């Protein structure tokens, strides 16, 4: 995309800024950028941990992927999905990051009893990666009619430099309020240029696309999203983070991985995910599960 002609801007905050202000702006614009979400030490530890997974990746190794999914991401994108089960740094420093949880509380919590991790995937977009099609991440639940409230809070965390040339994510402020088929014009598209450790926060209903990578460098980002606790998640967290691992985790991590009871009875919501009519987290704490 020719970024010269794009005048759209994304509001920028710092990770220490007031979460109410961040949430209000995200609900208004559909997107914000939060600077310095992850510090250098965390980035280095995480990148070192996942480098090994990517070292042996080639086209043959990726042939297991569904063709439509490969087309959606483009053949130049390497993935590491299911981070909750694969990365200790992710679990410790990202999964329940207070800045992310503060947004989940404000964006998702009003519409569910408990929210949960939806998806956690590193996307290494290699040189030559083409621009992705514009899409809404909450399009994964097409059976639902428009409900008028957010189903999903998504982030793209820059694990390395996010420049326009490297294929920084293209995001369309305000598009969460658009009719479904409206096509963004160049001047409506913002480029989420970020330093390593910065994050773009957006709603599941906001239009966006991975940008074209015209450089000879990879663009590595972590795509992470959370959704209402009564939805089916994109990553199957019960299998990517199986119970033998989950038993060893702190309660907040167990909960965000979807093992918590969704007890919405007081607000006329569903009593979901029980085991023997009890909260699985209590059963785990008692050594019964
Ligand atoms: O890689 C990007 O910048 C965006 C990826 C994306 O939007 C997605 O996977 O849903
Ligand atoms: Fe997306």
Describe this protein's structure:
The protein is globular, with a radius of gyration of 19 Å. The chain is 27% helix and 19% strand. It has a single domain, classed as Jelly Rolls. A 7-stranded mixed β-sheet has the order 1-2-8-5-10-4-3. Helix 1 (19-29) packs across helix 6. It has helices spanning 19-29, 40-55, 67-73, 83-86, 88-93, 98-107, 237-240, 243-246, 251-259, 280-285; strands spanning 12-14, 31-35, 77-80, 115-125, 152-158, 170-171, 190-191, 199-203, 208-209, 219-228, 262-263, 271-272. It is built from 10 helices and 12 strands. It has 289 residues and is an alpha+beta fold. The mean pLDDT is 94. Strand 1 (12-14), helix 1 (19-29) and strand 2 form a beta-alpha-beta unit. Bound molecules: 2-oxoglutaric acid and fe (ii) ion. GO terms for molecular function: 2-oxoglutarate-dependent dioxygenase activity; iron ion binding. InterPro entries: Phytyl_CoA_dOase-like (IPR008775). It comes from Caenibius tardaugens NBRC 16725. This is Putative phytanoyl-CoA dioxygenase. Its cofactor is Fe(2+).
